[in-house]
Amino acid sequence: MAQLNGGRSTEIVIATRGTLTASDWGTDINAASTPGPTGHLIHQGFGNTFKSYVQQLNAFIKQQNLGFKPTAVHCMGHSLGGALANINAAACAELGMNSYLYSVAAPRVGLVPYAEHLSKKINAAHVYRVANEADIVTMVPCFPFVHSPYVHGTYLLDGGMLKINPMQHMLGNGYKTMVNSTWTQMQSQSKGKQQHLYNSMFPANRQNAHPFEQMIKTPGAMLSGRLLKMINMAINDMLTRLGANSLLSVSQYGTGAFTVLDQMAEILARYAQASHQKAKEMQGLLNAVMAYLGRSTQMVADASVATIRWVFGLLHQSVNAMAKQAIQLVGR
C-alpha cells in the first residue's frame, strides 16, 4: 500500500501479490461461498484471504491516518493477487471511495449477484481486467462463478492458436504483449474478439442451428480456449433464462443437493425436460464438453441429472488440474 507523489499525492495504490505456494490456491467447486465486502457471495478461498488482511487495509485507508480523503484508490494484482485486487476495489467502493481495478490473469471471484453489483458500483472507465484467451486461470473457479464486473473492463490478449496452455498464465509468456500496447489498442482488439465469440455462440439462425455443431466436428476442438468460453457462455445463458443464477448456493437451493455441481445438474436437467428443443440444446452442450476433453467418441445420448453431473465433473477436474499446473509454474 502506497501514496502517490506530485500532482497525484491524494491518490493511493493497493497492490496484492500473486500466488507463491499451492496453499494460496483454493478453486474447488465444492467449496462454500462466503459473503464478501458488498454482502454478496464470493469464493470462500479468496474471501478468507481478504479477511486475513482487511484490518491492515482499513487502518491504511482511514482518513485520520492518511490525513486526507483519497481522490482515487488504485487496486491491482496478478493471478491470485488480481482476485484480491477485485475484492479490495469492491471494499473501497462500498466505503464511497473512487475505486480503480487493474487485474492481470485473475480468476473469477464471485457469483452473478456480486458481478452485477460491481458492474453498477464501479465506473466502467475504472476497470481494466486483462486476460489471455489461452490462460486457464482466467476461466476458474468453474461455473457458476463469473468475472466481476462482467459487463465492462475486459481486455483480451491473443492466445496464439487458442489452445489452453498453462504457460500462458506467466507474465513473461502470455502477457508480454501488454508492454508495447496502450489500453485503447487492447480495448479495440478485445471488442473484435468478444463480438466473434458472441456471433459464434448466438448465430442469426440460432433456432435452426446449434452453436456447437460446427466446433465439435473440428479436429481443433480439444482444449480449445474458444470452445471452453462458449461452454461457459451457454451454461450462464441457460441459468439466466431459468432465473437460477442467484440460487446457486448450498444454503439457498433446498433440493437436497450438497454441492454447487449437484445443484447445477438438477437445475439444468429440469431445463432439458422442458421441451424437445431444450433437451437437444443441453445434449449439444454436453457433447461440446466431451469434445473439449478429447472424448468425441463418447458422445452422450441423454441429459439426465446423472449424465450432466458426470460430464460437468469431468470438465471441472480437467480445468482445475490445468489451473493448478499454471499456478505452480508462477510459484516457482
How would you portray this structure in words?
It is a single chain. With 332 residues, this protein is of the alpha/beta class. The chain has a single domain (2-331), classed as Rossmann fold (3-Layer(aba) Sandwich), CATH 3.40.50. Helix content is 44%, strand content 11%. It has ten helices and eight strands. The chain has helices spanning 44-61, 63-66, 80-94, 112-121, 171-174, 183-201, 225-242, 260-273, 276-292, 305-331, and strands spanning 2-3, 11-16, 33-35, 41-43, 72-78, 99-104, 127-132, 154-157. The strands form two sheets. Strands 1-2-5-6-7-8 form a six-stranded mixed β-sheet. Strands 3-4 form a two-stranded antiparallel ribbon. Strand 1 (2-3) and strand 2 (11-16) form a beta hairpin. Helix 8 (260-273) crosses helix 9 and helix 8 crosses helix 10 (305-331). The longest helix has 27 residues, at 305-331. The two termini are 25 Å apart. The model is unreliable at 203-209 and 249-257 (pLDDT under 50).
